[in-house]
Write a structure and sequence with these properties.
By secondary structure, the protein is of the alpha+beta class. The chain has two domains: 170 residues, Ribosomal Protein S5, domain 2, CATH 3.30.230.10; 129 residues, 2-Layer Sandwich (Alpha-Beta Plaits). Helix content is 34%, strand content 21%. The chain has ten helices and 13 strands. Strands 2, 3, 7, 8, 9, 10, 11 and 12 form an eight-stranded antiparallel beta sheet that branches. The protein has a five-stranded mixed beta sheet with strand order 5-6-4-1-13. The two termini are 20 Å apart. Bound molecules: adenosine-5'-diphosphate and ligand LJ64HWYM.
Length: 326
């Protein structure tokens, strides 16, 4: 920490970015969903940007002490440096600011933890600088930073956390991602077991090549799923939500994964799978009673230590938002 001189009129911008489910089983690296717990709690990180003469980064929050020590090792500092370079490339004045990260999401959880910090940081920086960059430019920066931390660029956490809802990546420069319609009556139960799984390592577990039949399944499932969202065919959509890419290779890292699926199915889950690279699992339920029963089972049986938690969520339609500063 450094003692930044502040004026009484120092501008402060605070942004919150929600947790997200990467892949959503059927769309490896291409599909993601932003989460809002139904109890109204915020599940995600927030970042504050404040006028200051010298850059510094402070951190607090439940999982702040699990972050790498030293602000240079925090992804938020890297976001700041990247943003400054982008301002310079665009012939815009640099920002003179200090930053604060509230780290509420566990690291290596499968809830898009690094993405949440990245999205909140870039969004707050862009707002603070009076929006020099548009949505696609910001998303591209977010994807780049997520790639630096997880070993390869993927947008399925940063895009939903930023835009909200259920989001499909295009692979294009513009639009980088598009929002899909979804079923408002779906409950998304998530359960973080409390252990940490490195996304980079979980990516290294995957084969470099897939069989023709898996490739055909992947294409069929994703396209039929998108059709069923527009056709409002809930049953068909749910049927498509199985994972032919990552699950069989990654579930070895997740104690009691198969039992959790069985319990979710016994409670009428429409779908069940790994959230991102895990260890968080997710289940989709139509009825709140079923969602609560799945949550109760996961809390009792899937959670491994005191860090674990579970929430019944709906999709966060808003994505990132500016918070009033304290
Ligand atoms: N603000 C941050 N939030 C999360 N992880 C961070 C942050 N800054 C640095 N890191 C590091 O980035 C890596 C993120 O790991 P990863 O497995 O991708 O987590 P997640 O899947 O939760 O995003 C970890 O090594 C973590 O220590
Ligand atoms: N598509 C990525 C998603 C990683 O999500 P995270 O929340 O575990 O960072 C992957 O499956 O590798």
């Amino acid at each position: 920490m450094s003692d930044n001189k502040e004026t009484t009129s120092a501008k402060v911008t605070r942004a919150f970015a929600p947790a997200s489910i990467g892949n959503v089983s059927l769309g490896f690296d291409l599909l993601g969903a932003a989460l809002q717990p139904i109890d109204g709690k915020r599940l995600g990180d927030w970042v504050e940007v404040k006028d200051a003469e010298t850059f510094s980064l402070t951190v607090d929050g439940t999982f702040a002490d699990r972050l790498p020590t030293g602000s240079d090792n925090n992804i938020v500092t890297k976001c700041f440096e990247f943003f400054q370079a982008a301002l310079a490339d665009a012939n815009k004045a640099p920002l003179n600011v200090a930053m604060h990260l509230h780290k509420a999401l566990p690291i290596g959880s499968g809830l898009g933890s690094s993405a949440s910090s990245i999205v909140a940081a870039f969004y707050a920086l862009n707002e603070h600088a009076n929006k020099p960059f548009d949505e696609d430019q910001l998303l591209t920066m977010m994807g780049e930073l997520e790639g630096q931390i997880s070993g390869s660029i993927h947008y399925d956490n940063v895009a939903p956390s930023y835009l909200g809802g259920l989001v499909l990546m295009t692979g294009e420069e513009s639009p980088v991602a598009v929002k899909l319609p979804c079923f408002d009556n779906w409950y998304w139960v998530v359960c973080y077991s409390g252990i940490s799984v490195s996304t980079a390592e979980a990516r290294r577990l995957l084969p470099q090549e897939y069989s023709l039949s898996s490739t055909l399944d992947f294409g069929r499932q994703l396209s039929v799923f998108v059709h069923s969202l527009y056709a409002k065919d809930e049953a068909l959509a749910a049927k498509m939500m199985t994972d032919v890419i990552a699950e069989e290779h990654r579930k070895v890292l997740l104690p009691r994964f198969d039992d959790a699926r069985e319990a979710a199915n016994a409670n009428n889950a429409l779908a069940f799978g790994i959230s991102g690279s895990g260890p968080t699992v997710f289940a989709v339920a139509r009825e709140l009673d079923d969602a609560n029963a799945i949550k109760a089972w996961l809390e009792k049986e899937y959670i491994q230590n005191e860090d674990g938690f579970s929430h019944v969520c709906q999709l966060s339609t808003q994505g990132t938002q500016v918070l009033p500063s304290a």
